[in-house]
Write a structure and sequence with these properties.
Layout (H helix, E strand, L loop, with lengths): L1 H24 L5 E12 L5 E11 L8 E7 L5 E6 L4 E8 L3 E11 L4 E10 L3 E3 L6 E6 L9 E9 L5 E3 L3 E3 L2 E8 L7 E6 L23 H29 L2 E16 L25 E7 L18 E4 L6 E13 L45 H11 L1
Parallel strand pairs: 1-10
Antiparallel strand pairs: 1-2, 2-7, 3-6, 4-7, 5-6, 8-9, 9-14, 10-13, 11-14, 12-13, 15-16, 15-18, 17-18
Helix pairs in contact: 1-3
Length: 397
């Protein structure tokens, strides 16, 4: 038993030291993503058509060789089709490697200074959850595959606005698409949620959202870590029980209702710091960092001027322009708050999966014998199995 415990402790210590070892081996940046754009349209059958466009620049082709193929994280293994859309994509297929990926084989080897323009179309199922926040509404969650060792200069998600009733975080609407634009540092993730009425598409309760491929060995070292952290989680469950008990005595149900917050925002047309013109959708100056916001005021629907009656019907997240006042907008933010118990209310129960339904597994490049990002997928063969440790411990005890 002592030897068995030794192996478990050794595995945990090794895992704690592995990031430090990996950091030294991954000091040089191999790649940079200049542009990462995903355009999303929901089909009538509630599947999702997603067009990925990635401008992948090679910074170093000496340390690990040239770029020849990459892995791109996709929502889950319930994909319908993967189709190339650019000449740089020689071949594309599904890859299960501790997650769900599109494996993209490039048309040639790409060397330092070159950019591979990768574009493909994915039709994806199991992306939504029916009645997740409140009855009558279905939500799609989407977090694009991220990159542990590559920075993304510009990530843009474009989602067709047709039939939507809410989104989070707030998005601009451009040419019929909700649009989010951001930058991602190494390992950073960005997710969005888009909500529809239940009758918008042919939603199927049996197709609630799932994680990616779950073919991993159930005795993975992950479970050793979970076991080690279990004791730390006990206080959390105790506190959670107290909070739940309070909620029950406070007469709250598990149902929610919308709470809409409206804010009148006036912007300076030019930066008060350096005089640069304000680009559409920007709150801060790209040159000096000063805020473009001149004033913010929380308002009620009754405070909206009569000539802006079109704004009174806005009940979804977004930034909407005042037509009667230049540089003035109304910001709408929607949250969901508990509904008190009622003695005469009906409820429906539907099965659903975890909230982060589309947390795609880490995506990394695997060209020229393995890129730096692949260390997170056990490129260095460090995976230790609890079952193997236990068997070895028994044999030597």
């Amino acid at each position: 038993m002592k030897k068995n415990r030794f192996y478990v402790i050794f595995a945990l210590c090794f895992l704690l030291l592995l990031p430090a070892l990996s950091t030294g081996a991954q000091a040089a940046e191999l790649d940079e993503i200049l542009r990462y754009e995903i355009t999303v349209d929901v089909n009538d059958d509630a599947t999702v058509r997603m067009v990925y466009h990635i401008d992948w620049k090679v910074l170093d082709s000496s340390s690990e060789g040239p770029l020849t193929w990459v892995k791109i994280g996709i929502p889950n293994n319930h994909y319908i089709s993967l189709t190339p859309r650019s000449s740089a994509v020689k071949k594309i297929g599904y890859l299960s490697d501790g997650g769900s990926y599109a494996r993209v084989d490039l048309d040639r080897s790409y060397y330092a200074g070159e950019v591979a323009e990768i574009e493909f179309e994915l039709v994806q199922d199991y992306m939504y959850q029916v009645d997740e926040y409140s009855e009558g509404e279905t939500a799609y969650h989407f977090t694009p595959g991220w990159y542990d060792d590559i920075r993304v200069d510009e990530l843009t998600i474009r989602w067709n606005v047709d039939k939507t009733i809410g989104q989070s975080p707030a998005a601009l609407t451009e040419n019929g698409y909700l649009t989010w634009t951001t930058q991602l540092s190494k390992g950073e993730k960005f997710g969005v949620t888009v909500t529809y009425p239940d009758d918008a598409f042919a939603f199927d309760l049996s197709k609630t959202a799932t994680y990616g491929d779950d073919s991993e060995d159930p005795f993975d070292i992950f479970y050793i870590i979970i076991g080690a952290l279990a004791l730390l989680a006990i206080p959390v469950f105790i506190i959670g029980g107290i909070v739940a008990a309070f909620a029950k005595t406070a007469n709250f149900s598990d149902r929610t209702k919308k709470k809409i917050t409206r804010t009148r925002v006036e912007y300076y047309p030019t930066c008060p710091g350096c005089g640069a013109a304000r680009p559409e959708g920007k709150n801060n100056c790209d040159y000096c960092g000063r805020s473009f916001i001149k004033s913010e005021e929380t308002i009620e629907e009754k405070d909206i001027p009569a000539e802006e009656k079109g704004l009174r019907g806005k009940t979804t997240d977004g930034l909407y322009r005042y037509h009667s006042s230049p540089n003035t907008y109304m910001r709408v933010h929607v949250t969901h708050v508990p509904v008190p118990h009622s003695s005469s209310h009906s409820s429906r129960s539907h099965s659903s999966c975890a909230h982060s339904s589309c947390a795609c597994a880490c995506a990394c490049a695997c060209a020229g014998g393995g890129r730096a990002g692949c260390s997170t997928k056990d490129f260095y063969n460090t995976r230790l199995k609890l079952r193997q440790l236990a068997l070895r411990g028994k044999r030597e005890a």
